[in-house]
Design a protein that fits this description.
531 residues, Immunoglobulin-like, 5 domains, elongated
Length: 531
């Protein structure tokens, strides 16, 4: 839109074809009959016939206006399709279109073609109070005062913003707000807490993570624990490869949220999220671990559970809970999108899915985490991610069984842009995608580092890599790490995991090993880290 069009904001409109100034003449007979019918029906008309009066509906007196909106109302009769004009603060006349359909005026006017209106950019006005006067053929019939606020320019370009309105329109309901440049205003992009909508997010972030580093111990406190409720975390082993991670004090806000698990040791074992649930004032995350062949096996792993509060960070998550359903909306208790949109999942083929998370990104500059979910061994990878043909952000996921064959499976998925998974107040975070296993490279549009430092990956051997995350060592080697195998054409790896995390010259260094079943194999991967 050029500057002149922005400033006028489409003030002039064209009335319906065939409308003429003789309109009042040919409508008199119908109105006379209607007047008698209204009186019999009990509709009271004022002494001055309201049919000849006019109404200003927008803006109402005392209203606050901003952005691009309408000046509008209705009038039963007018001097013609171009007879109604408006002026603000005594300024030049603004032409309104007259004769638009208003079925709600039929009881008063006898017909529906009584609406008038004009699109107007309230950003053209100085902040403060203003007066609008509406005239028909130069004769005033309505006026009101209103107030405006702006961002200091008539048309704000290149801005973006998110907001959340809690307990509206009722308690435990809410509205997600997104800045829309075209209307120069925030729009309701989604709602929560009502029928069929997601549960509203908590007012304060709820999150916890830890490194379960004692695979054979019956019960212990995991290494590098973080808990937003300032309560202890614990790991309990209730059988070979069977664990429950107890995250204390996270009962406030109920269930929901999302959980992820990623192996951390130098073998081909894998772990999956089995469930998460509230118990005795804590969030409990059940984890199952297996050897390369799919038998239960004790293993070490990183686990994280989070339920973010609304903010300016672009993030979304979902639990893909219908493995064989062709297209569905995942359980609204276990999904979230900061834009207020509903996330969806489509089954493209056996074991292959497309998760759509609208509004999260316009490219590949995001962090992505995928964890298989269930009681048996499944391994899920990210095939690709980005915008689909309809401009919606999506992530394609491929899941396989222990034998390496594609198989339907449930999974958890999180996506976040220029932010960590769980934005705890002391968190540093980084993520990257490694491409080209033979000569690893990290694309500048596929990484993030909250300290503004460089991320890099080097190859150490077959399927073995050193990922260096600049200045991520502020809290020692206590960060939460997650590795997901990625891509479909480079390398044969079925899964990747962290071997170790260490601090090298203030950087966090994660040694990653990729596997094809029980054998080391080249593979691309996605890595996320937060401390």
């Amino acid at each position: 839109m050029d500057e002149s069009r922005r400033e006028t904001a489409c003030r002039h409109q064209t009335g319906p074809a065939g409308h003429s100034a003789s309109r009042s003449t040919w409508r008199r007979r119908a109105r006379a009959a209607t007047f008698g019918a209204l009186a019999v029906a009990g509709i009271l008309l004022p002494a001055t016939d309201v049919r000849a009066e006019g109404v200003l509906e927008n803006p109402q007196s005392g209203a606050a206006k901003s952005g691009i909106g309408v000046l509008s109302g209705w009038k039963c009769t007018a001097g013609g399709p171009t007879a109604i004009t408006l002026s603000i603060d005594g300024g030049a006349a603004i032409q309104a279109a007259y004769g638009t359909s208003r079925a709600d005026t039929i009881p008063v006017c006898g017909d529906a073609n009584n609406g008038w209106g004009v699109l107007y950019n309230f950003g053209l006005l100085a902040d403060g109070e203003h007066e609008i006067v509406v005239r028909d053929a130069g004769v005033e019939f309505a006026r009101a005062t209103f107030r405006t606020s702006s961002f200091g320019v008539p048309f704000l370009s290149g801005a973006s913003g998110l907001g959340f309105l809690r307990d509206f329109p009722a308690a435990d309901q809410g509205a997600f707000l997104v800045w829309e440049q075209a209307s120069q205003s925030f729009q309701v992009a989604g709602t929560c807490g009502s029928g069929g909508r997601p549960t509203c997010p908590p007012a304060v972030l709820r999150t916890a993570w830890g490194f379960a580093d004692q695979e054979s111990a019956a019960a212990y406190a995991p290494s590098g624990s973080v808990n937003s409720a300032n309560q202890p975390n614990a790991v309990e082993r209730d059988g070979v490869g069977r664990y429950v991670v107890v995250l204390g004090g996270l009962e406030a806000g109920g269930a929901g949220g999302i959980a992820h698990v990623s192996g951390r040791q130098s073998d081909a074992s894998s772990c999956v999220v089995s469930s998460w649930f509230l118990n005795m004032g804590a969030m409990n995350v059940a984890v199952r671990c297996f050897d390369a062949a799919g038998a239960a096996a004790d293993a070490r792993f990183d686990v994280v559970w989070t339920q973010p509060a609304p903010g300016s960070d672009l993030r979304a998550f979902l639990w893909a809970d219908e493995a064989s359903e062709n297209e569905y909306v995942p359980d609204t208790l276990y999904q979230y999108n900061v834009t207020g949109s509903l996330n969806t999942v489509e089954r493209l083929a056996v074991g292959t899915y497309r998760a759509t998370l609208p509004g999260i990104a316009t490219g590949t500059d995001v962090g992505v985490m995928v964890s298989a979910y269930g009681e048996g061994l499944a391994r899920c990878r990210v095939l690709e991610y980005g915008l689909d043909v309809d401009g919606r952000f999506g992530v394609d996921v491929d899941c396989r069984n222990a034998a390496g064959s594609t198989a339907d499976a449930q999974f958890t998925l999180s996506v976040f842009r220029n932010a960590p998974l769980a934005p705890f107040f002391v968190v540093n975070g980084a993520y990257l995608r490694m491409r080209n296993p033979a000569m690893p490279e990290v694309g500048p549009a596929e990484e993030y580092n909250s300290a503004g430092a460089a991320n890099s990956v080097s190859r150490l051997g077959v399927g073995r890599y050193a990922a260096r995350l600049g200045l991520m060592g502020s809290f020692g080697a206590n960060g939460n790490v997650h590795v997901t195998v990625a891509g479909s054409g480079s390398g044969s790896a079925t899964h990747c995991k962290a071997e170790t995390v260490s601090i090298v010259d203030a950087d966090a260094q994660v040694i990653v090993q990729c596997w094809d079943g029980a054998n080391a194999a080249e593979g691309e991967f996605l890595l996320t880290y937060e401390e």
